[in-house]
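ok so heres the complex, four chains, lmk if somethin looks off
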Amino acid sequence: MINASGCIKKGIDVPVTIKDIAKKVGVSTSTVSRALTGRATISEETRKRISQAVEELNYHPNAIARNLANGIARTVCLLIDASEDSGAFSNAFFTNSVFGIEKAVQKCGYDLLITGCFDGKVSKTLDKLILERKTDGIIIPPSLACKSVLDKLIGGHIPFVVLGEPQKQSSLCSWVDINNSQGGMIAAQHLLDNGYERLAFFGGKETDGFVQRRLGGFLECLEANGKNMEEVSFLNDACAAVDILSSGKFDGFVCNDNFAAFEILKAAKALNLDVPNDVGVVTFDNYPIAPYMDPPLSCIDIDTLAQGAEATRILINQINGSHPQQSLISTELIERASSRRVKG
Amino acid sequence: MINASGCIKKGIDVPVTIKDIAKKVGVSTSTVSRALTGRATISEETRKRISQAVEELNYHPNAIARNLANGIARTVCLLIDASEDSGAFSNAFFTNSVFGIEKAVQKCGYDLLITGCFDGKVSKTLDKLILERKTDGIIIPPSLACKSVLDKLIGGHIPFVVLGEPQKQSSLCSWVDINNSQGGMIAAQHLLDNGYERLAFFGGKETDGFVQRRLGGFLECLEANGKNMEEVSFLNDACAAVDILSSGKFDGFVCNDNFAAFEILKAAKALNLDVPNDVGVVTFDNYPIAPYMDPPLSCIDIDTLAQGAEATRILINQINGSHPQQSLISTELIERASSRRVKG
DNA sequence: CTGAAAGCGCTAACAA
DNA sequence: TTGTTAGCGCTTTCAG
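and the predicted structre for the whole thing:
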């Protein structure tokens, strides 16, 4: 692209480099570099002329060259468990934490890389990311954070943080999780406060760590309120909703997710039980559809956006030399009709 | 890190470079480079010795250096509309296309960058991405693809593809969209085939392009079946579900989303109308909760995973010199109870 | 405060 | 088939 003056037109096609700025201002490239990075002394005079030239030529420093010279990638990588397939990826809550991560990463001047990764190939993927210098730090889901992976990360002094409480604990492993135990506690207390007396925890897989923690908080609350443990029931089969409701043993349910809660709602309707007057329901996760349920569902809201932001904060700190850190994000009760008795 | 032999231990902390391989094998770095890139002639003998050394030292080429030398980023960037906030980002379908994109991008040996971007700042964001050479191509949502942005992209010869049919059409603009018109057609035809005769399109904002296209396909189908246009109704207020149902004018509904469909289901229950015997319902989007609805919802399934993969394919082709391209992804009917009459 | 020169790790003409 | 050399665009000692 040649312009009227016979010179190559610099711009998008032919990039303008630091040399162009130097030439235009009549200084060396190192001076321009100093002015740009800002962490060296420059006369006010030349600094002004340089930034003016930068403006005029619409100069943007080549990030690749800069990163090569600096020996860093200025990039954070979020690993995704691709083996779960529609599990992790189509999960609205996961998506929200991506949003939180992206925002925080951007604010720190880093870029966000996303890499899908199958269970058996974490090690290879990590090699590609770390050894090829594509990233300075890694955010990893708990499902991928098995012992060998953590050992590799820790042994290699790779800054990383797990997006949830990992199975294997270590002070060398950073993680950020939702305070599931607190959530279980809040949900149970809320039902008790509203006059429901015989509570059950419903839904979820007993083997999942976060379910265990939710149940733990739930039980702790009952205990603190002097409730008999026999009045508690943990179920992992959603089909059992009708059974458990018709048994008449319970009048309040803390559900592990919206699906479980929906089953309870349907079962109640089938048994002609009224929600919330006969039975109260609180569920984990504020699904978009929860307010449209009949009745609208009370929820323990999980702030995955904050989780993502916090994970990023910890990770960037670690990249800058800080020690690993662990953190729990508080949950919040969103009260709707499903847990608010109108009569009696 | 000094090992027993008094030498610096190369590995994760001290990277092993192409020089180390060259030294170990006793060849020049260019020979090693040639062996690695594979697009030059090398004697079988040295190639073997090199790949052996690569293996032994666990060498991984520095991607930054490689990209600088090649003048490319080997990165594709997905722009996210951050102004929609919980809109785009907590959208399960968006998430699925990210998955599709990531998989395809990885297969092509590219990395995926994700950047949130506010409506007013697209141009600045693009400058950062393009002029700083952070990415070779861009995938952009239709909400961000206004005229000025498209002009900038096209004028700058930046490979890009829009994740949906943009308002402003141009053969220079690549896009991949769901075939919404076809979806509307399939949904309507399905209801007609199942004996529903007076159809309405329900839900969605009349101003959204994809809603218009769905409605267009819907209407086209009615016309092809000799149906009177007066029997068609387009509504954008979900609260009107009870009104429209109690009017008795319609016995079949094509809903724009699961929320609209859920409103119809609730209204029918309130009016003591039976779904599917009195009223048939088909909705766009196969939400995870659709099969659990009462009755389970028939859906027009939107393959956003395929959409993401196709967008990537087109983008990478363009990076490699191909022309812009447009593409429509077929929809699929998932038949469930909500549109299947049991009696007469 | 500024410039010259070397270097980040890799690739690619050009010669041999 | 291979080595030499220069260079990608930027940063950073080291002198001045």
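quick notes: The CA atoms of residues 203 and 236 of chain B lie 5 Å apart. thats all i got rn
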